[in-house]
Amino acid sequence: MITLTKNDENDEIIKVAQLSVEDALKELNTSQSGLTIDEVHTLQQKYGKNIFAKANQEPLWKKFLANFTNLMAILLWVAGIIAFCADLVQLGIAIWAVNIINGIFSFWQEFQADKATEALANMLPSYTRVVRNGKEEKILANDLVPGDIVKLEEGDDIPADIRVIAATTAQADQSSLTGEVNPVHKGAHAVEDAKKKNHADLNNMIFSGTNMMKGNVTGVVVKTGMNTDFGKIAELTQNVAQQKSPLEKELDTLTKQISILAISIGIIFFLIATFFVHYPLVKGFVFALGMIVAFIPEGLEPTVTLSLAGAVQRMAKKHALIKRLSSVETLGSTSVICSDKTGTLTKNEMTVKELWTLEKSYHVSGEGYAVRGHIKEGPTHVFAKDNDTLKEVLLGGVFADNAKIQAPDKKHLRYQILGDPTEACLEVVARKGKVDVEAELKNTPRVKELPFDSSRKMMTVIQSSDGTHRFNTYTKGAPNCVVDKCTSYLEHGEIKPITQEIKDKIMRANDGYAKDGLRVLAVAGRNLDQKMMDNLDSATIETVEKDLTFLGLTVMMDPPRAEVYKAARECRKAGIKVTMVTGDYGLTAKSIARQIGLNDPDKPLTVITGDALKTMPDDELRHYLEGEVVFARMAPEQKYRVVSMYEKMGKIVAATGDGVNDAPALKKANIGIAMGGTGTDVAKEAADMILTDDNFASIVGAIKEGRGVYSNIRKFLIYILNSNMPEAVPSVLFLLSGGAIPLALTVMEILFIDLGTDMIPALGLGREDPEKGIMDRPPRSPKDHLINKHVLAKAFLWYGLIASIIATAAFFGANFYRGHIFPNLPEVGWDYRQATTVTLAAIIFCQIAAVLNIRYSRQSMFNKHFFKNSMIFIGIIMEIVLLLCISYVPVFQSFFGTEPLNSHDWIMLVCIPIPLILIDELRKWILRKNYKK
């Protein structure tokens, strides 16, 4: 497996990250003045273009032909040949047409679904600025080589893996790699403990496929193309073979079973017809082929395909877009969901939840970037004007804020944040406290900023004083770092000297919030004297960030989605395990998991970090996966490993993600789920399903639909298979009687049932809503096949047996009514054709009863949803219309060998469904009664 976070001596990124700027340049054989043209040419020959190479792909023509050579397709080709051998040219053409349409449809679905690598390639910038031969120039990004000196500004896409050698207020958006939206501050200092860190945690490295959010960077290229972390994700994504879905495996198994059954029966009947009944060899062969036709469900594949397509349409209305039809059923088989946190389980909107001062703490209501909610002390609403300390805390957040909030518009359904989401929520809470943000910024504009850097973990702003504010300088940052710079604190309007006891009190509050997974920022102020204000050029970190006055703590979080708690509870009830796999910190991940009830509250919850997973053997990982676990600070290949291990344990895994880093895991999972709103194109292309509302609860709805689909496929399998028995019985009676009992059905009439009257009602069964209680049972076992003893018993020993008895009785009854009794039954002529038409009609009316009975496994069909599925009743009407057509329209009569039915026939046929329905209702009543006991 490809590793993106190696920490050995051969990892070039780790090596240059722990070196000083001068030593890093030496390591890469370059200098501040850049490479020479000759050096560039040599390196281009060695490393190639800075592009993402495409994996060798199977030719389109092979993919196309593969859809016509699977087992079910071969069976349909054989069925067509059988029709041609029986001189049924039109039906042979019809069967082959069904096969061709199915193959083209399947190929189109596959063609649309696999474009992940192309999407990766499109994320590289076209041009970039470099220094070569001591001169700055603009070149194509794909011409970059290791050792090039690159200059980047705010908004630039990063074209390679680059070691920072100079930076000014630099922040990078690494969300495409890590999945976490918070900007990462970048600098040129060596990272001495680089070997202990993941690549994404190296503050002196910026990575291909990410973006400069703020500031400027000069850097030296370390890796290009497929050697970058981004390229390794591309390679990992390419190397993940497209797995067959559980449904595809099931259909393969089903096809094999049906093939063996049909061919075995055909051989047996051929031997009986030839050696016992003494049929001519050719006639015996055609007779055997007719038996095979009776057992091949020609309509199975189009019925499954159209049923899945209908489910896809229904799921699209519930915010789930399916790219691969068979993924619908895979969802229903899901036993584990590996879910990202940010934006899926949470709202991806940082929100201030508490404000803490040495006087009191305040609760903040409302979530997200909309100004809905209040600052409260108990039940009382509190505003900035009511408390001097609270006002200063809020002003500190407003002044030390570089983010911009854009309200939703036609292009964006959610608030858009330009800058750090953490800073954006400080403006929102100030507005909740009735601070006039625009007036404050206008009256006291910023005159200088001492930007955040990772070494001191704080930022400071200096505002021009209008004489109305206590302070003209505000600092915010990590509580321990800010408190260390404080010599006083504000309480009840007075500035008091700070003591160690007060500092300990502040840090205890901070630690309490941190243990709950909340993010805490400290706010402090200072009033610079006029001399320093008049000479801001001399204002440095050392001279400004000292003798601060502690004001308070702002406590924030990315709140869970309101509907996720219910969805998580439904998952547990349905026997589905949810495992959070996030790039966020462990305490935060554990806190969110507990808040939303993601895991069993009665069991201990283990947090495993990416660092711990690096050295963890597979056996130990398997042990943790069997319990309650959360994964934090995960790198791309680590998420891939978690998904792979679950699959090795026999689980059906759904994995969610939105970043480029998630693409390998999405493609590896049985069902990859990408976010439609926040997801990258790469994640969407690698996924099997896209959530248009980025909502975990939509996954649960899709799983319910998927379970319903599997149940429905079983229903129409029972429906399709049960007619095979009355289709086969006439041939059995014909052979056993030595030909004294004529064939009650012709091959043409058998195919008319399989491809005509059975199709639309079967589609109706495929559109049934999930039955009540379908999410109250565990996921189906991968060992539980579509065709099992219960399905076979229902299809053949219940519905099929009853239909066989009725169809046989109808054949003999029709002959008796026309004056023919055994053994003097006609084999040709008007009366014979009428008798076969009555038999055909009897099977169709048995199927009408069957489709109504099969709708519910235990529940009575006579419920409030009886008329909800209109397709069922359209199918029944179409069955009768088709029967009328072949019975009364001359062209169809000659084609199918049928004759008109008389009034006595119709009276008998209409009565057939009544006892069948009553008998099955009695069976269901007994089942319900025993189930309750």
UniProtKB/TrEMBL annotation:
Residues 15-88 form the Cation-transporting P-type ATPase N-terminal domain. The keyword Nucleotidyltransferase does not apply. The chain crosses the membrane at residues 64-82, 88-108, 258-279, 796-817, 837-854, 866-889, 901-919. Its main location: membrane. Keywords: ATP-binding, Cell membrane, Magnesium, Membrane, Nucleotide-binding, Phosphoprotein, Translocase, Transmembrane, Transmembrane helix. GO terms for biological process: proton transmembrane transport. Pfam families: Cation_ATPase, Cation_ATPase_C, Cation_ATPase_N, E1-E2_ATPase, Hydrolase_3. GO terms for molecular function: ATP binding; ATP hydrolysis activity; ATPase-coupled monoatomic cation transmembrane transporter activity. It is a multi-pass membrane protein. PROSITE patterns: ATPASE_E1_E2. It is found in: Cell membrane. GO terms for cellular component: plasma membrane. InterPro entries: ATPase_P-typ_cation-transptr_C (IPR006068), ATPase_P-typ_cation-transptr_N (IPR004014), ATPase_P-typ_cyto_dom_N (IPR023299), ATPase_P-typ_P_site (IPR018303), ATPase_P-typ_TM_dom_sf (IPR023298), ATPase_P-typ_transduc_dom_A_sf (IPR008250), ATPase_P-type_domA (IPR059000), Cation_transp_ATPase_P-type (IPR050510). NCBIfam families: ATPase_P-type (TIGR01494). Belongs to the cation transport ATPase (P-type) (TC 3.A.3) family. Type IIA subfamily. This is Cation transport ATPase. It comes from Lactobacillus gasseri (strain ATCC 33323 / DSM 20243 / BCRC 14619 / CIP 102991 / JCM 1131 / KCTC 3163 / NCIMB 11718 / NCTC 13722 / AM63).
